[in-house]
Design a protein that fits this description.
This protein is α+β, with helices and mostly antiparallel strands. The protein contains three helices and five strands, in the order βααββββα. This is Acyl-CoA thioesterase.
């Protein structure tokens, strides 16, 4: 199994809060998506055609999040992201959101993605374009 790690820091926006001034639970999924997007740009070197789904899509087929601590407006949150890729044609991302003000884990989440080609057909193997990108980063064998 290939595991790559990435850190993404976010300062919650006012629009992320609920009426109590606490980060709304849906905000965590937005933050996870932002971290995943930046990981794909910075680490996997995905260009615009890969990021917008013109060459390859990897939709979410499963997601979850466990909330442990509240985050308030003005806190700073670090997302520790793990990219996991095994032999099957799916990607798993694991997330750990850490409130840097109190240095405690505020949420733990996961998303699982499958691959679709440019014609929206399910890929049964890891797409060549991804395995080539991974070979540029680490020695990767399917």
């Amino acid at each position: 199994m290939l595991i790559l790690e990435y850190e993404y820091v976010i300062k919650p926006r006012f629009s992320d809060t609920d009426s109590y001034g606490v980060m709304h639970h849906s905000s965590y999924f937005k933050w996870f998506e932002e971290a995943r997007f930046e990981f794909s740009k910075e680490v996997l070197k995905f260009d615009e055609d890969l990021l917008n789904g013109k060459k390859l899509k990897f939709p979410i087929v499963e997601c979850n999040c466990r909330f442990k601590e509240s985050v308030i407006y003005d806190d700073v949150v670090k997302i520790d992201l793990k990219f996991l890729l095994g032999k099957s044609a799916k990607i798993t991302f694991e997330y750990k959101a850490i409130n840097l003000r109190i240095n405690r884990i505020c949420a733990v989440g996961k998303t699982v993605h499958m691959f679709l080609d440019e014609n929206n057909r399910i890929c049964l193997n890891i797409p060549k374009i991804l395995s080539e990108r991974l070979n540029d980063i680490v020695e990767f064998e399917e």
